[in-house]
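ok so heres the complex, two chains, lmk if somethin looks off
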Amino acid sequence: MNWLHRQWWRLLVGAFGIFYLLIGIEASGPAKTAGIVGGVLILGGALVSPSRLAPWLVVVGSLPLALLTWWSVVTPVMGGLAIVLARIMSQSSRKDRRAHAEDEQRAQ
Amino acid sequence: LSLVGRGAGFVAVAASGLVSWRAVEQGVFSSGSGPAYSAWEEWQTNPSQPLDLVRAAVLAANAHDTQPWLFRASPDRIDLYAVLSRNIGAIDPLRREMYVSLGCALENLVLAAAAAGRPTLVQLLPDPGDSIHAARVQLGSGPRQVSALYQAIPDRHTNRGPYDTGRSVSSSVLTKMRDLIVEQDVALVWWTSTDDRKRFADLTVRGAQAIANDSEQSADDFRWWRGTWSAVQSNKDGVTIDASGLPPVIRALGKMLPGQTRDSYEQGFISSLRDTELPTASALGTIVVRDALNNVQRMAAGRAYERMQLWATASGLAMQPLNQAVERADHERQAGLQQSFGSELAELMPESWMRPVMPFRLGYPTVQGLPSPRMSAEDVTLPALRPT
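and the predicted structre for the whole thing:
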């Protein structure tokens, strides 16, 4: 339960990566590449959190498909949400890391 | 607060998952791809084979994308047959649009044959007692003649979007299009006066409204609507939202929202016609024949229409058939009703012998016309008969 609590935001961002992959696999033309590569980058962002690179991977992964398929409404909204969640994920991971470090210091 | 935030995040992700699933399932990101559209890519695989000529024929303009054709290809001959079960029913009770569609396919076939170095000898209705056997095309051999019209075949799509109101079609274009018609008993009428244009536009909108109010016509019209991506891909025919000419955002939302009812389909169609298609048309006209019930003349009109649309495509112009008033006139005639639409159309003809069989609009496009689904050449070609 504690693990789920700690990983919550990473899991949510990862889910966005999977949705992007799903769209990419089914899409045609440049949207296919943008969806697949974008999905992998978003998943990568979720995996490398709390690294400072994580939110940037999500931003870079989200934007191309959102811009290419702006008319779908779906991908710009999803891209925006993924970026917001990535920011929360990053802050939450850093908070957890600080709390963990303080716990270790106290234990010593 | 943390719990509320986590819950909100979960709801946002779950909703995104559902919406993206719906978008994928409805082909929002894959317009123009899949088995229903592969005919547009495969049309030139092996230009020397008779089947390849059929690949060009199946890309022709046709009513409601019903593709009412069947071919039998042999090395030196291709026969074209009408498929009565693919008629639009009460929308086309006299099978006018069906034979015009067959003529369109025939024109593509002839252009493709010329490009393959197979000059043609076309015989319309070779067996006068058999209206199903629409045409016989004998294939000879000669030099390849790759025309601009032939090259426009994969780019020709009916464009139902708004046309550019700031750019009018010049009178020389109208003359050139008139000169494209070489068939006997077929001619082209342009409605150029403001009064004629208004009368035709009003008549067309009233025709669409009358169709919507007629349960039989409306049902037969809606029968060809393909509202789901799976229906598009499995049927490879019919009227689709992608080919509607709507702006991309509306198209995407239209695909994702729950399926249309017959009434909403008809009302959407009427409003597009009244508010977009007719007011933005740069030119309005019709192909006319001497005898609107004569299948030979109807097919000749179809050949002329296809040629005109290919020429328009190659010249950066867009076209769209506007058959509603004629469909009502056909319905009146078939049902033995008083000729209301028929008489009003007759009044719009400059000469008494002229019978309209294919009204349309013309203009410079503002949005790209998208392809409609197609059955492949293999789907619509019978095996060759053994020599007797």
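quick notes: The radius of gyration of chain A is 16 Å. thats all i got rn
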